[in-house]
Design a protein that fits this description.
The protein has 199 residues and is mainly alpha-helical. It has eight helices and no strands. The termini are far apart. The relative contact order is 0.15.
Length: 199
């Protein structure tokens, strides 16, 4: 679909955007919302961080070159926009706030990260075939391996002496906890609370 240099450039651009839109900016917004005592925005961002933790799990799965990382990365792109717009009470509270730089930035970020995730999911759908490969085949296939390069670079920076297998094991444990919490929300809390963040 893409030649190798273009694919590599697109994937690295995707990772750079991810760091800005899904890590740096929401962290700034969370601090800003606490300073401004904007409770609805605080709740939304706490929910966002819970859902977006799947991205961190994905990075550690990719460090270990586990094929499931392609599925978790794709699912994160679907769950994040849902978490930002799902809550009726939070949406109403944010909408009712008077105009302010925080409200404008928060709204702009929600739309930006939603568009980023939708476009990214379409782009990453091409790589879902990598989830069906063995680890060895995954590493040998350039179109799959290119998605692992940034996580490997992250490991070299923050876990230079860490074993990829051990990091992958903890990622699998984290994924299991994440799935249990998601299933609990879908089958228990959603029935009780509906689309209200407070219940």
């Amino acid at each position: 679909m893409f030649d190798e240099p273009l694919l590599q450039q697109l994937v690295w651009t995707d990772y750079r955007l991810a760091v800005f839109l899904t890590v740096s900016l929401p962290l700034v917004l969370l601090i800003w919302a606490f300073v401004q005592k904007a409770e609805a925005m605080q709740r939304l961002l706490v929910i966002y961080w819970r859902v977006a933790s799947l991205l961190a799990i994905t990075v550690y799965l990719a460090i270990a070159s586990l094929p499931i990382s392609f599925i978790t990365g794709f699912m994160a792109r679907l769950l994040i926009p849902a978490s930002l717009w799902f809550w009726v009470d939070i949406n109403d509270e944010i909408e009712d706030r008077p105009p302010s730089p925080l409200k404008w930035t928060m709204t702009a970020w929600r739309w930006a990260v939603t568009l980023y995730c939708i476009i990214g999911a379409i782009f990453q759908a091409y790589s879902l075939r990598c989830a069906a490969l063995t680890t060895d085949a995954l590493v040998e296939d350039f179109a799959c391996r290119v998605w692992l390069e940034a996580p490997w670079g992250y490991k070299a920076m923050f876990h230079p002496n860490g074993s990829p297998q051990i990091l992958g094991f903890f990622a699998i444990v984290g994924l299991a906890v994440y799935v249990i919490c998601l299933l609990y929300f879908c089958f228990v809390r959603l029935g009780k609370q509906g689309r209200s963040a407070l219940g």
